[in-house]
Each structure stands twice: as C-alpha cells, then as structure tokens.
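Subject: Sanity check before I submit

Could someone independently write out the structure tokens for this chain? I want to compare against mine line by line before I put it in a report. The sequence has 398 residues.
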Amino acid sequence: MGGQWLSWLLICVWLVQGRRGRLRDPHTEFAVKLYQALADVDRGSNLIVSPLSVSMALGLLQFGTRGRSLAQLEEALGYNVKDMHVQELLQHDWGDAGNSSGRVAVRLACALFIQHGISLLPDFIQHASAWGNSSLVQTSFNQPNQTPSQLEEWILKNADAGTEMDVRLPIWSDSPEWAGPHMALVSTLAFRSTWQRCFHLGEELPFTLADGSVTKVPMMHQLTEARFGQFHTPMDLRYTVLELPYLGGYFGLLVVQPSDRKIPLSQLETQLSGHAVTMWHSSLHKIKMDIFLPRFRIHSRSSLRSVLPSLGVSDIFDPAAADFTGISAEEGLYVSEALQEAVVDVMENGTKAEAATAVVLLKRSRAPVFKADRPFLFLLKQVSTGTILFVGRMVNPA
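---
Independent answer below. Compare away.
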C-alpha cells in the first residue's frame, strides 16, 4: 500500500511471592518524550515506535494501579483514563477512523492474557472490556506452546486492519523469563492506506548518511500541492516540515529534517517538543512542490522497560513497589517486561502492476523542491486531532 504500518506492545505482569508494594490530543507530549528516550538509547539506526499503542496499553493498566504506581502513569501519560472527556475523545477518534474510507483501515485493540486461576476484580473487568477494543483471554503460561500460539493468533487477527497482513514478526521469546508470567497485556495498532496522490518510482538517487558517506536508494517522486512549513527551535535550529496526506485526508505523514544539510538529525531530535508538534498543524501552508521521498521499510524492536523509568514510570516494574491491587486482590503483581515491535513500509502505490508502470524520467520544474535525501524524522498522525500513531527516523533507506 502507499503506507503500511504495524505495531504491537507486549507487557507481561508476573505474580510472585513477596511484598506488594481535557486536551485536544492527550498523547502528543508523551509521544515525543517516548521517542526521544528510545532515540537516545538506540542512536544512529533506523527507528520506529507507536506511542499511541504504548499509551493505550499503559492507560489500561491505570484502571488496575493504585497509589504511587497510578500517579506515575498519570504523570507520564498526561491524563487519567477515568476522565470521561479522555474516554470520549479516544473512542470517538478511532470509531471514525476505521470507517473513514474503504481504502483506509485503522485498528487499535488490547487484550489481557490471564493465567487460569487468577481472580480479577469485577470493576477492573468492566473497565478493561470497554477500553481500546479490549478483551480478556484465559491461558496457561506453564504450557510452553499454548500461550505463544494464542498470543500470535490474537495479534495477527487484530493487526489485520481489514487487509491481508504479510508481516510475521517473532512475538514470543525463548527466554526463561517468559516461562512463568501469570498475566500479559497486549496492545496492537495497525494502519493501512494509500496516498491521496500516488508517487512515481523514479531512478535511484544519492542519499547522504549521517557520517557523510553517500549511498543510492530508490527515490519516489511527485509534483503536487502539499502542506509545508519552515520552523526553528528555541536554540534557533531551523528545520522544515512536509505533510503528505493519505486517501481521504484523515491521516497524514509528516517528514521533518534540518534545513541545513550540515546539521545532524540528532540535534533536532533532542530539541523537539510536544508543543512544537502541535503547533505544526496550524502553521503549515499549502504549496505546489517537487517532492522526493525514498522508498523505505523499517522493522524495530524496542525494550520499553529500559526507557519508561526515564519518563517517571518505574514502580510498576518493581515487585516491592508496584501496586496493582485494582486488578486482583492477590498480592505480588508487577510488570516484568514491556516490548514493542513495529514495522513501517512506505511505498509509491499499492500494487506491483502500478509500480511497474510508474517508472518515469524526472523532469526539472520551477516549483520549490523538498528532497528527503538525508536522515529525517517521520510521524504518522490523525489530522483532526493531531494524535500520533507512529513516529520514527530514517537514517539509511538502504
């Protein structure tokens, strides 16, 4: 498709013996902070994360956390899921998104995999069942084959987004850590669409890497009207933002890069803020441009347990401090691991036949040129709210 996206979050909650220890978009600030934390850990490589998938899964945990554990989640996410304004906004957004067009598909879902014999509180079951298309699944974690197969089946079913998904990511680890969890929280977010105006796949063109070396990559091209803006950070780092609409105009892909070719992308990453991202929506203006964008695919696997404490979420991972008494009266629940795997596949159009006939000779025009021929950031967002579904960086399309 013109843009193909798949992401899932996997959070395991272990039961062990021991001590118990209204916004337009409630996700933007969290999205930027989460991306910056991951970018700081995983420097210099292609990266993609779905902050919406992460925040929805952590939002579900809010229904079952108490005390300081709950306060940390609320502070990091920027909202309380029991706020009716937040719930109405989220449910309204994704209800509309999934039905916006026959060629635009969005699916957000959560599931709580529960060990047989664990007793959940009725209040948590009620809230969990109404949150983010959630479901509760009974399983036996002590049977090596049962839970992985159930988990994979659920993920593939809920990541389909109305079209055939050809991505099969490893979603279960052979590590001994996975032998004994009693609860696992899974969140999936899938998006598929075509561009509002399809690209032509042209010749291979140079792409300058962060170290200054140059490689040639398949470059897509179109001469079209797009939303564009030039901005600068408080430290006066100048950068440009281009928004490419998907079919129907409900979603858009933002491409962001420093204006000065000599400025590394890492400098821009550290200076971005949620406020800046929100400001782009009202500051971009339409202009006819020659647009060059590399055809690329990214597959990232991130350990969220290593970055969430830097955002203030630490108690849920500590068996001595975690307070999940809102999930079950049994003591000892804590989050053992939080993982996310994500894939992005950005192409010129949706079929091989169209791609084969779309090879063209690039002609010079008098229109301004936007050329993503060096490392850039990209964000896929819902236009009406600014909600960020995916954010990442492309440093080497090859």
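---
OP: Matches mine. For the report I'm noting this point. The chain has a mean pLDDT of 79.
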